């Protein structure tokens, strides 16, 4: 009897434990606050900072996880506006994730194969299924909602697309958001414009690709546009009298980073490397030094590494590690330039006229020119390391002058990194310059002036010695 009672108790306990998640499940956040925060942080003027987003994708993945957890039964109980807002946000969030999975990439069309392009990848998690972006757009959104304005809200990660909105779509404001998004897209003159003289509408190919949706809503593309124009200006022209031409569609990535894809890749790679260094414990300092040496040799900018050192190790140890790493890296590049790659370095320097006088200046003034060059932003750090290898400065003088000249910038950037607080924040950019930065820039400017005066005087003196004054 006791055994039966025990079994019944265990069975009841298991049933209750399995039921707990059902009672504990939180309702879906229809304000889409996490996705909204991500868009406000990573999107500006419709363009996306993919490098920063790839360096810190946790919020995006959390959004997708929350969307995937929604059941179809719950979804069907929502208001229509909430359902459409959810699906638009899901499409845009999953497109961002698709780009991150292949970033750096120049265009979304470079993802996948000819037969199975980006919109045919089974990447969308919805109602326990794996769907494609085509399934989501054509099989659900267009089929169930019949709202042509969604074509100005669904963004395919191309510059030719409507701009990605800097906020999430929400059911309570969806109509106003779609109206604003439509006006915003039509106001982009490279994509849509009116030529009154020739009575021509120059429209985005979106109006050609999805003409059926506009025709179903208003009878024709002309009629749909007429309704829109009339609502804004009752005295507007009769667009039915205008012919339609389509503008070119720009499929390049809607990336707002000013850096090239290769530079963005370096940026993301450095942040991931710093994350690995952070996990090495007491060996992290040695790993940072080794990474800095490699970065110097292969021309990877050290600014993010220096800031990262401040995040990981603080001002004191971060400055020590960076000082050692940058000095060793500069020395390795110097020796490679002097002994192994003189011809290559010489050809490289042909594109930088400011290096032409360095050799003669260093020969006359030695370590002082090296010190000033290290303080001056006029000379790119990594290339300067190789360039000085072609001069006649002794190695010991080069090392000492380089080490001393790099200390101010090293300490300042490590200090700034220590204020950032996390590696993810390094990818955000856009911070206001501090007094310390402006001070260092002032020192750099002064050093630039001094080194310019130095090399100019030396050049003039050398020229006068080389070309004697003609005798009268």
Mean pLDDT: 81
Q: Residue share in helices?
A: 55-70%
What sort of overall outline do the alpha carbons produce when their principal axes are compared?
A: elongated
Low-confidence stretches: 19-24, 428-433, 462-472
Rounded to the nearest angstrom, the radius of gyration is 30 Å
Q: Name the strands of the widest sheet in spatial order.
A: 5-6-7
Could you say how many structural domains there are in total?
Answer: 2
Order of helices and strands: HHEEHHHHEEHHEEHHHEHHHHHHHHH
Straight-line N-to-C gap: 131 Å
**Pairing-aware structural class of the strands and helices?**
mainly alpha
Tell me the major beta sheet. Answer: 3 strands, mixed
Number of strands: 7
Strand proportion: under 5%
Total number of helices: 20
How do the helices and strands line up, and which of them pair or pack?
Layout: H1 2-24, H2 33-42, E1 43-44, E2 47-48, H3 50-55, H4 58-68, H5 72-77, H6 80-102, E3 124-126, E4 129-131, H7 133-145, H8 174-186, E5 193-195, E6 200-203, H9 206-209, H10 211-218, H11 221-232, E7 243-246, H12 261-278, H13 284-297, H14 303-339, H15 342-349, H16 358-365, H17 367-375, H18 381-388, H19 395-420, H20 435-466
Parallel strand pairs: 6-7
Antiparallel strand pairs: 1-2, 3-4, 5-6
């Amino acid at each position: 009897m006791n055994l039966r009672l025990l079994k019944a108790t265990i069975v009841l306990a298991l049933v209750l434990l399995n039921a707990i998640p059902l009672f504990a499940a939180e309702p879906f956040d229809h304000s889409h606050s996490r996705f909204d925060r991500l868009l406000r942080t990573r999107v500006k003027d419709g363009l996306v900072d993919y490098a920063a987003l790839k360096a810190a994708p946790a919020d995006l993945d959390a959004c997708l996880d929350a969307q995937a957890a929604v059941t179809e039964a719950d979804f069907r109980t929502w208001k229509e506006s909430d359902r459409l807002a959810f699906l638009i946000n899901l499409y845009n969030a999953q497109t961002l994730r698709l780009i991150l999975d292949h970033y750096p990439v120049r265009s979304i069309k470079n993802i996948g194969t000819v037969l199975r392009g980006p919109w045919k990848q089974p990447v969308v998690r919805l109602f326990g299924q794996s769907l494609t972006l085509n399934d989501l757009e054509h099989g659900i959104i267009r089929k169930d909602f019949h709202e042509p304005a969604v074509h100005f809200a669904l963004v395919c990660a191309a510059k030719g697309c409507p701009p990605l909105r800097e906020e999430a779509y929400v059911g309570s404001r969806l109509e106003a958001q779609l109206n604003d998004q439509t006006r915003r897209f039509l106001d982009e003159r490279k994509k849509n414009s009116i030529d009154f003289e020739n009575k021509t509408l120059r429209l985005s190919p979106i109006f050609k690709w999805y003409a059926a949706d506009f025709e179903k809503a208003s009878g024709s593309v002309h009629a749909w546009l007429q309704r829109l124009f009339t609502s804004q200006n009752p005295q507007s022209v009769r667009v039915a009298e205008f012919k339609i031409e389509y503008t070119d569609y720009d499929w390049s990535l809607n990336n707002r980073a000013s850096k090239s894809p290769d530079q963005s890749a370096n940026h993301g790679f450095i942040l991931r490397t710093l994350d690995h260094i952070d996990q090495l414990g007491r060996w992290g300092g040695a790993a940072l030094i080794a990474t800095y040496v490699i970065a110097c040799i292969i021309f990877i900018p050290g600014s993010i590494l220096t800031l990262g050192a401040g995040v990981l190790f603080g001002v004191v140890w971060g400055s020590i590690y960076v000082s050692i790493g940058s000095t060793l890296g500069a020395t390795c590049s110097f020796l490679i330039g002097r002994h192994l790659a003189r011809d290559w370095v010489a050809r490289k320097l042909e594109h930088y006229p400011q290096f032409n006088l360095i050799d003669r200046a260093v020969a006359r003034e030695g370590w002082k020119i090296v010190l000033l060059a290290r303080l001056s932003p006029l000379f790119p750090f990594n290339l300067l390391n190789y360039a000085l290898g072609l001069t006649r400065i002794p190695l010991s003088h080069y090392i000492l002058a380089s080490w001393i000249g790099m200390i101010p910038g090293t300490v300042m950037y490590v200090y700034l990194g220590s204020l950032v607080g996390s590696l993810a924040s390094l990818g955000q950019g856009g911070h206001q310059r501090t007094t310390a930065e402006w001070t260092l820039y002032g020192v750099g400017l002064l050093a630039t002036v001094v080194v310019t005066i130095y090399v100019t005087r030396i050049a003039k003196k050398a020229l006068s010695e080389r070309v004697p004054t003609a005798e009268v």
